[in-house]
Design brief:
Helix 4 (145-160) crosses helix 6. It contains eight helices and 14 strands. It has a nine-stranded mixed β-sheet with strand order 1-2-5-8-6-9-10-13-14, sandwiched between helices. It has 300 residues and is α/β, with parallel strands linked by helices.
């Protein structure tokens, strides 16, 4: 009897320790989240990525009040509760992509670099996840610090619940724009930047492929030096595009791409004439090429 009781207690403890997704109901969406998702026709669910109230105890700006501004595009400001939005394709093929909108680590351009891209991926059978990561940059911390924590946690969360999401753990990529491209490049090579907090963090936080759209901050155009955090490499497929008019970030990106090529990373990189910064992906010159790359992508 004592042995049976001990087994029951152990089983109960095991079940209670199993991580549960913390879904946020539509009535609890922020105004910015409502705007971001209002045109998404596919089935969707919004989740916290961190436990408890969804904020981080060590966040120096956890009292921020989130704001969503629409001035041509949606700009989400003052994020202190990062979230992950799962969009369910009609015919999922097992692949998944974590989307990181850009915005200079100040705001998130969350529609044309977020929800529009999610619907585009879902139409291809790829399961998209939109990451609403913390912005703006936290005072006294590197510009990417809290955003990288959010991206790494989101990658592990996606893998931990892969079965529920209908995806394969070895087919999880990342796609980012501008600062979100920098965040994606960092996530592709950096070890976890925070201490493990639960069983979710036992899953890898490294993506299996990366799509980088007009990526910012990869190198210094004056010194011709790569961002030191991007010096490590992994031989995962990388797709990169930028416009020839994107003169602020094109020289730095050239430094980064040459570094990948030198280290035998399988990278496809293109520069498009007549295009500047911040234009998005859907309906743009590189949309079909990116779709073709994804369609031809070979993963183990």
């Amino acid at each position: 009897m004592k042995k049976l009781l001990a087994c029951l207690i152990a089983l109960t403890s095991s079940l209670s320790a199993q991580h549960q997704l913390m879904e946020i109901g539509p009535s609890y969406y922020t105004e910015a989240e409502k705007i971001m998702l209002e045109k998404v026709k596919e089935q969707k669910s919004l989740y916290q990525i961190w436990p408890d109230d969804g904020t981080r105890a060590d966040d120096p700006s956890k009292e921020l009040k989130e704001v969503g501004e629409v001035k041509g595009i949606l700009r989400i400001k003052n994020v202190n509760r990062p979230t992950l939005t799962w969009i369910k394709p009609k015919n999922p093929d097992g692949r998944a992509v974590l989307i990181c909108p850009g915005g200079g680590y100040h705001i998130l351009a969350a529609t044309h670099e977020g929800s529009d891209v999610a619907s585009w991926l879902a139409a291809q059978g790829i399961t998209p996840f939109i990451l609403k990561y913390r912005v703006p940059r936290r005072k006294g911390l590197p510009k990417h610090k809290v955003a990288l924590e959010d991206a790494q946690r989101a990658m592990s969360l996606i893998r931990f619940h892969a079965k529920s999401f209908g995806i394969q753990k070895n087919k999880v990529g990342i796609l980012g724009f501008s600062a979100g491209g920098h965040l994606s490049a960092l996530t592709a090579v950096q070890d976890r930047s925070y201490k493990n907090i639960d069983e979710v963090d036992q899953q890898s936080c490294l993506p299996n492929f990366a799509v980088l759209i007009y990526t910012a901050y990869t190198g210094d155009k004056n010194t011709r030096q790569i961002d030191p955090l991007l010096k490590p490499t992994r031989k995962i497929p990388v797709y990169s595009v930028i416009g020839a008019k994107d003169t602020n970030f094109l020289p730095g990106l050239d430094i980064y791409i040459r570094h990948l090529q030198k280290n035998n990373v399988p990278v496809e990189h293109s520069v498009y004439d007549g295009i500047g910064h911040g234009v998005g992906l859907v309906g743009k010159a590189w949309e079909k090429d990116c779709e073709a790359w994804l369609n031809n992508l070979k993963l183990p």
